[in-house]
Design brief:
The protein is mainly alpha-helical and about 525 residues long. It has 3 domains: about 210 residues, Hypothetical protein af1432; about 180 residues, Hypothetical protein af1432 (Orthogonal Bundle), CATH 1.10.3210.10; about 70 residues, Orthogonal Bundle (Arc Repressor Mutant, subunit A), CATH 1.10.10. Helix content is about 60%, strand content about 0%. It is built from 27 helices and no strands. The radius of gyration is 23 Å and the shape is globular.
């Protein structure tokens, strides 16, 4: 696809709105949750008489509000078990210590045996508040990082750093209050809660809860305007085509992605998806690169090579719909758990289907779990309906997955992974030509040496960051590197200072974006195995 055609068809709004559907799944909310927040906040901004530039900020902040949600997935698993259910249950809980503690007491380990519930509750009460605040800062830093890939401007980046701030100054990280908060985030704060209250319990509850939080979480002046116009503002959320309305209201002139910006943005989405689990960090980007290299090896046209790389980047976006406790389960899955997993390619396709430009990528990406003998999912397609690109993507995903540690097995050596693929060829599951292309591409692949230091990180700091990204705690990093835990702590702080973050989640996201995990020594993969 030519750059000229891309510029004329792919808007920032289209891409970011598609991304917002993934964050809906990742926060346990119904699809179009973020779109409805965007519409509500935008209309409220119009009533308040905001300028076009201010409305643009409201628009994009609302759509990107939850884009850092993968930063706290493991934290929520540790307390609640099912982090998607936890997200949905605490969506209306006010972010203050007492309400958060009460939510933990009520929901921690719900559905687990009593001993595990007590263990999770104990962890939540002892470390939950501190970890929650850290994860909130991490969410802000990741959202800002992703927003930068779209070059949306500093006003939007500023607002995304204030996602968890409050009007009364009791928010996180506690750097702003009152009029110091951006106008965009003040409107989004009200819209995000009002949308949930309205959807769950109607107009009167939404108005009552927003009025109750005036002067605490919310700007009282904005609350007053919302209450006065609430029926008109909220009733529009019942419209049949929220997607179309949100696309239409984007302030002019529309912003478009060129090829370079699109590649940067879609790669950021790959890393956002993989950040969720310690077992998948770097997976999507690796699948995309391997699949595109194999496609070139097979002599596919340039357009197909590019499409395969991009489809590889987003092939796992549907994983957001499945709880992390299922993905990272160390034992065998139950039939009901497996049934849920079989649906994730469907969610990948559905998330990307709204955009005319992204839909073909979604259709291809959703085929990566199909098998030639019809045993794959979610459609169980026969070989006759599997294109060459789909066959390559399936082989690339299997090979890359076998090289990676999972909760239920150790990583395989390349030779063992190759033998597994060839076995699936003999069983009629994978295409021989695709497998040969993937294996030959993987054999010829070499991790390039870093010609320059990234963010001026020393070699030792890169080692520490790699181990951090693979889920190792400070003491385990120290043992592996034969240095003291105190020295590791100093290295971590220096890393934060150099790359401009303050949380592990944001540092890990930096490592993913700069391909630092590809250099990880192979003997480390077993250290974080549960």
């Amino acid at each position: 696809m030519s750059e000229a055609r891309l510029k004329s068809t792919l808007r920032h709004a289209e891409f970011i709105a598609s991304l917002s559907l993934a964050t809906d799944l990742g926060t346990g909310q119904p699809l179009e949750h973020a779109l409805r927040i965007c519409l509500l906040a935008f209309r409220l901004g119009e009533v308040l008489g905001l300028t076009s530039d201010e409305l643009r900020a409201v628009y994009y902040v609302a759509l990107l509000r939850y884009v850092g949600c993968t930063a706290d997935s493991q934290h929520l698993v540790d307390i609640f078990g099912d982090e998607l259910l936890a997200h949905s249950r605490v969506a209306t809980v006010e972010l203050l210590p007492l309400p958060m503690v009460m939510a933990m007491i009520r929901y921690a380990g719900d559905g687990y045996p009593l001993s595990e519930r007590l263990q999770k509750l104990t962890y939540g009460l002892s470390s939950g508040i501190a970890r929650t605040r850290e994860s909130q800062v991490g969410q802000c830093e990741i959202a800002q990082n992703i927003a930068r890939s779209f070059n949306l401007g500093e006003e939007i980046n500023l607002a995304l750093g204030q996602i968890f701030e409050r009007w009364d100054g009791r928010g996180t990280p506690g750097n702003a209050q009152g009029e110091e908060l951006s106008k965009a985030i003040r409107l989004v704060h009200i819209a995000q809660d009002a949308e949930v209250f309205y959807r769950v319990d109607g107009l009167s509850t939404a108005v009552s809860m927003v009025r109750k939080r005036a002067g605490g979480f919310y700007d009282p002046a904005v609350v007053s305007c919302f209450v006065q116009h609430s029926s008109h503002l909220l009733f529009e959320l019942d419209s049949d085509s929220i997607w179309d309305i949100v696309q239409e209201i984007e302030p002019r002139p529309y912003l478009y992605l060129d090829e370079t910006k699109f590649d940067s943005a879609i790669r950021a989405i790959a890393d956002f998806i993989d950040l969720r689990s310690v077992y998948t960090r770097g997976h999507s980007a690796s699948v995309g690169e391997l699949a595109s290299t194999a496609a070139a090896h097979c002599g596919l046209p340039d357009e197909d090579i590019i499409a395969l790389r991009r489809a590889g980047y987003v092939h796992d976006v549907g994983r957001m719909a499945i709880p992390l406790a299922i993905w990272d389960k160390p034992g065998a899955l139950t039939n009901s758990e497996m049934d849920r997993i079989r649906l994730y390619p469907y969610y990948t396709e559905r998330i990307l289907a709204r955009s005319p430009y992204l839909a073909p990528l979604g259709s291809l990406a959703a085929l990566h779990r199909e098998r030639l003998d019809g045993s794959g999912y979610h459609r169980g397609l026969p070989a006759s309906l599997m294109s060459t690109s789909a066959r390559i993507l399936a082989a690339a995903d299997v090979y890359q997955s076998k090289l990676e540690t999972r909760a239920y097995r150790a990583a395989l050596e390349p030779q063992a992974a190759a033998e597994e693929l060839l076995s699936q060829v003999r069983d009629g599951k994978l295409d021989k030509q695709a497998v040969v292309a993937v294996l030959e591409s993987a054999t010829g692949k070499r991790t390039p040496k870093r010609a320059v230091r990234i963010a001026n990180l020393s070699d030792r700091e890169v080692e520490v960051l790699q181990l951090l990204a693979h889920g190792l705690p400070t003491r385990q990093i120290a043992n592996h590197l034969h240095i003291s835990a105190k020295t590791v702590g100093h290295h971590i702080q220096h890393i934060y200072d150099k790359i401009g973050v303050s949380t592990r989640a944001a540092a890990i996201f930096f490592a993913l974006q700069n391909n630092l995990l590809q250099e990880l020594p192979t003997d480390v993969s077993v250290l974080n195995k549960k």
